Every structure is written in structure tokens, then in C-alpha cells.
């Protein structure tokens, strides 16, 4: 992300929406420069998933783990990164960031509320840094919980090496059920990513999880992502 100062008047800014209110199946529209060549390309699709965790990167580019992103089937091609994802009311609800190279019609966007938080942090500190936990996870819905005899929450698929999560003892296979006594729900409305995004670098959070059928609590100090 970058903040630009434009020396020009009479510009019409886009309206920012509320990504916390998004629902799977909702219609979205992506705009960008497809393949770095076709400017103002418009594609339409729906929200396929919320609260996804992905690893984004490219040839010769360092990969980055992104948490809590929006998944959409609106065509997002190379060159679209940084373009807006709109709802049908013309509000920006995401920023396009990645596309799956191994499948068709699987694109990802950062929720606009995450961008809002980053901008607010920049205004206060002059930096875009945000709190970092360091896990990739899968949301456990009520149906998945019943089928697999698991609690509703977030199943940790992997823990980043050297991350605050690893330092505090979190492991793959843990199921996070609460953060600071706020229940992690199975519908992405209250997810790990959304909860952590409201915290600050240096905050200590109490994570309640289930490991091998036992409830445990860990104190994790959030850090700046390096």
C-alpha cells in the first residue's frame, strides 16, 4: 500500500464500505489493469469465502502470509493487484492482492477495514505496521465441528517459524476458541484475523484453545511483522 499526495482539485473519492458486514454469495466487482496492459478492466463475481489464510508471492518475489482475506470468483489477473473490489453499491470493500495460479476464478482481496486500520495507524505513527500473530488457519463451522468432533473455532494449519504464535507455544492442530475471552465463531464474523487486527503491536492477548481434547490458555505478545 502507498499513500499519494495529489496536487489537484475536484477529484471524486470512492466511498469505503464495511468489510465486517460481508457475506458469502454477495456480488462484487473488481477493477484493475489486467496483465499490466488492459486498463480499467471490470470483472464481476461473488464472495466465495471469508477469513482465508494464504501465502502470496511471485517469481523472484518473497512470499508473504496473509490472514483474513476475502476469496472471490471475480476474475483477478496479474496486474490487478492494488485495484479495488466493490460491492454493488459502489463501495470499496477490498483491495485485490492475489490470484491462485493452480486454479481458475480464485482471487483474493484484503478487507477494506484492514486497510482503514493501517491508514489510521500511519496517521498516528507514520508506519503501516500492524500486529502479527503468525498462523494459518481454517474456520471450523458448526457442521465441520459436528462431523469431526471438534469445537467451533479456528483450526491452526501451520505456525510461522519465529512468529509470536510459535514463541508462545501454539502448534499446528490446535483449535483456537477464544481470544481475550471473545469467542471465535465458525461463521467468520469473529475470526482470528479480525480480532488481532483490532489490537496493537506489543499487546498481550490470551488465547484459549483445545489441544488433544484439553482446554489450554497461552499468553501471546503481538509483534511487528518483519
UniProtKB/TrEMBL annotation:
GO terms for molecular function: serine-type endopeptidase activity. Keywords: Hydrolase, Protease. Residues 111-186 form the PDZ domain. One of its GO terms (biological process) is proteolysis. The keyword Protease applies. Signal peptide: none annotated. The keyword Protease applies. PANTHER family: PEPTIDASE S12 (PTHR43343), PROTEASE DO-LIKE 8, CHLOROPLASTIC (PTHR43343:SF3). This is Putative serine protease HtrA.
